[in-house]
Amino acid sequence: MSIVRTILGMPFWILQVASGAKSFADNPVLGSKRLNRLGLHVWRLKTAHALTRWRRWRLGRCVPSAHRSEFATNGFIQIDDYLHHGEFAALRDAILSTEAPAREMLQGDTITRRIAVDPEYLQKVPQVRALVTRSRWRSLVRYVASSASEPLYYIQTILTHAVDADPDPQTAFHADTFHPTMKAWYFLEDVAEDDGAFSYVPGSHRLTPQRLAWEKAKSIAAPDGLDRMSARGSMRVDESELAQLGLPAAKRFGVKANTLIIADTFGFHARGHAARPTRRVEIWAYSRRNPFYPWIGLDLFSLPGLAERRISWLWAAKDRFPQIFGPPWHDAKIKHPLGD
What we know:
This protein has a single domain (2-335), classed as q2cbj1_9rhob like domain (Jelly Rolls, Sandwich). Helix content is 34%, strand content 18%. It has helices spanning 2-15, 33-37, 40-59, 65-74, 85-96, 119-124, 126-132, 135-145, 209-221, 228-231, 310-320, 322-325, and strands at 76-79, 100-107, 110-116, 152-159, 182-187, 198-200, 251-252, 260-264, 269-271, 279-287, 330-335. The protein is globular, with a radius of gyration of 20 Å. It starts with a helix and ends in a 5-residue tail after the last strand. The mean pLDDT is 94.
């Protein structure tokens, strides 16, 4: 039966080479030590990053040069006081006073709660639609994502030290996958540096010779020689390794409310350790598309009317077919962003 499964699965595993598939453990082609010694993983890295540079060059004309320069240097864009005070206050108050269906995940001692920004939510809180449909916002998230695909949007609450358990695994520095991707955080409350603040290693989004050599060594060690998350394609890095990679210490983003951060999560990042039980509330955006597409658009599911419904479809798919789409998040019923 193992031989039959291998024969039947091989065409699918080979096709995944030209996709965003990242798991060395789940795909014996991507996890092949022989192929990775010959440069398979390095080829995927170089090709994906070259295509990303091409797409970003095309999208960059809509982004101010100061933001492009900041991103090229650091791998993130930070904008303080993103909205005018009155507009931000109206947006924040509307979000924090609205209950909606939520999903939760417990990782270590930390709860992550997400409320989908779907058609029903946008009808209740039209201020969110006004924010994410403006050209300024769209040009920034598309540039970092190197794609005109519409991101997924959530209202996200992070509750640290929520239970007595091991530390949150998201506090380990990691890259989300082998190719550039985009995540954005628009903070609705102040976050101190020791409140589990977002942390990022400046410049770690660049595919340098040191990073390539490190990635190749990890790919050859995979899957059995890596920790579970690295074997599944989200490479963990010890802070002691950063200097060997020519990288500085991580920056912790202690920020004021109304701060927007957009980052390339191929760069090493983590959730900072919280010194005490804390709560963080934000608009959270996520975009990851097949990195081998040379085009920036042509995404059916970004069309109005479809884009807003993707999260509901994803949650339903995870509920019905967890073995295909991954384990579902816990249905937390109707929740408030500020609720414990």
